[in-house]
Amino acid sequence: MGDIFVLVEHRQGKIRDITYEMLGLGEKIFTQQGATLTALLLGKGVNSFAEDLATRAPKVLVIEDDQLENFNSLCYQRVLSSLISKYQPFLTLIGHTAFGMDLAPSLSVEMDLPMVTDCIGLSLEAKRLKGTRSIYGGKVNANISLKESKGYIATIRPGTFSPKIPGDKKGGIILEPSPLKEAVDAKKFLKYIEAPITGEDITQAEIIISVGQGIGGPEHIPMIEEVAKNLGGVVACSRPVVDRNWLPKERQVGISGKTVKPKVYIAVGISGAFQHVTAMQGSETIIAINKDPRAPIFGVADYGIVDDFQNVMPILKEKTKK
C-alpha cells in the first residue's frame, strides 16, 4: 500500500482539529496495512505548522505559494491533482467541512477516483476501501464498498475520531515546488466573515453538562449552570430544549446542532435519541442521569445514575463548591 494523504485544513493562523483527527484515523487503520501517513500542507509562511505536523506524521509535504495563503478550491485542486499524479497515494483524506465539500467532489472527477463522503468509519476489504456513512438523519449507518481503484478520496466527519497525539519522533519535512504557474482568476478569496458566537463555544469545552426535556422546565437550568461553572464547564442541551426556547440554538448538541468531544459529558434528563448520541459519543467520559433505567443514553454512558435529577444535582452542587 502506498501513501495515505491527509490534507491539512488551516484557517487564520490555526490548524483545524479535523486535521489531527484524520491523522489519528490514518494511523489507527492504515499504517497497520503498511501505508505511510503523509500530511499535505498548502499555504504561505507555514513553517510553524510544518514543525507541529512533523510530530504527528512520518512525512509532511509542504507547498508554499502566495495564491495558497487563503483557501481557494481551484488553487488547491491544481496542487492536489499534481501531487496525486506524482505520488499515486492509495487514499486522500479531506475534512467534510465547507472547505472539503467545496474541493473534494471536483478533485474526484478530475482524477477519476472513487469518493465516499461524510465518513464516520473507514476500513479495507480485499484491498478495496469501505466507508461508513450515517444516513436518514442518523437512523441508519450504511457501509459503502467502493469499486476497485488505484486510489480513493474520502471526506471525514469532524468530531468523529480521536486526534493524533504529538510523538517524540519527528517526521521528515519535504518542500515541494508549487505547480501554480499562473494566476487563478475564476475564483478569488476576499475576506473571512465569522458568524458571531454568543456565550460559550461548546465545541471547545472540556466539561459539558447537557440537559434534555427530562428536566421539566427552564427553571432548573440556573442550578445546572452553577454546577457547570463550579466544574469549569459549560451547559449544552438536546434539540427539544432549543425547540422550547429554554436555551439558544448555539448550545444544541446533535446532528442538527454541534458535534462535541469533551473530556467529560454529563447528560441530564436526556433520553439518548440517535440524533443526539451521534454528536457526543466521542466524549472521553460520559455520565448519564435519568430516572428511566431503559433510556438509550445508558447504552453509551460510562457511568449511569438512575434517579430523578432533582435528587442528584443538589448534591453535585454542594460537592462541586468544594
Describe the structure.
The chain is α/β, with parallel strands linked by helices and 322 residues long. It has two domains: 3-176, HUPs (Rossmann fold); 202-321, TPP-binding domain (Rossmann fold, 3-Layer(aba) Sandwich). Helices cover 25% and strands 26% of the residues. The chain is built from eight helices and 16 strands. The protein has helices spanning 17-29, 47-53, 73-87, 98-111, 221-231, 239-243, 274-277, 309-321, and strands at 3-7, 10-11, 14-15, 36-43, 59-64, 91-95, 115-125, 128-135, 140-145, 152-156, 172-176, 207-211, 234-237, 264-268, 285-289, 303-305. The strands form three sheets. The chain has a nine-stranded mixed beta sheet with strand order 9-8-7-10-6-1-4-5-11, with helices on both faces. Strands 13-12-14-15-16 form a five-stranded parallel beta sheet. A two-stranded antiparallel ribbon has the order 2-3. α5 (221-231) runs parallel beside α8 (309-321). The protein is elongated, with a radius of gyration of 22 Å. The model has no long low-confidence stretch (mean pLDDT 91).
Please give the structural blueprint.
Blueprint: E1 3-7, E2 10-11, E3 14-15, H1 17-29, E4 36-43, H2 47-53, E5 59-64, H3 73-87, E6 91-95, H4 98-111, E7 115-125, E8 128-135, E9 140-145, E10 152-156, E11 172-176, E12 207-211, H5 221-231, E13 234-237, H6 239-243, E14 264-268, H7 274-277, E15 285-289, E16 303-305, H8 309-321
Parallel strand pairs: 1-4, 1-6, 4-5, 5-11, 6-10, 7-10, 12-13, 12-14, 14-15, 15-16
Antiparallel strand pairs: 2-3, 7-8, 8-9
